[in-house]
UniProtKB/TrEMBL annotation:
Sections of the chain in a coiled coil: none
Name assigned to this protein: L-rhamnose mutarotase
Pfam family membership, one: rhaM
Taxonomic placement: Bacteria, Bacillati, Actinomycetota, Actinomycetes, Kitasatosporales
InterPro entries hit by this protein: Dimeric_a/b-barrel, Rham/fucose_mutarotase
Organism: Streptomyces litchfieldiae
């Protein structure tokens, strides 16, 4: 199992709405994430919009690919894209670039 951490930037004027949307993630989106191999998935949001994501998975590329193949993910990403800065035309799930791990205390 590998640990994956990534950063994105939520637009400051959309932070409260972003929080509200994640307080009630669609059940079918939650199920799709689990089925695609996203485990122990968390999002942390700083008041300036810095979003830190963390998940555990056997294969991040395969987990991303499995989610990209789902209809629910296409709907979710279409709705979430407007919340982020600097996506350069990518969907939010395509803009997640894992950070290299430099320390871990098991």
């Amino acid at each position: 199992m590998s640990r994956v951490c990534f950063l994105l930037k939520v637009r400051e004027d959309r932070i409260e709405e972003y929080r509200a949307r994640h307080a009630d993630v669609w059940p079918e989106m939650r199920a799709a994430l689990s089925a695609a191999g996203w485990h122990n998935y968390s999002l942390f949001l700083r008041e300036d919009g810095l979003l830190v994501g963390y998940l555990e998975t056997d294969d991040f590329a395969a987990a991303q690919e499995a989610m990209a193949a789902t209809e629910v993910n296409a709907r979710w990403q279409a709705e979430m894209g407007e919340f982020f800065e600097s996506l350069d035309g990518a969907r939010p799930d395509e803009a997640m670039k894992p950070l290299p791990e430099v320390f871990h205390l098991p």
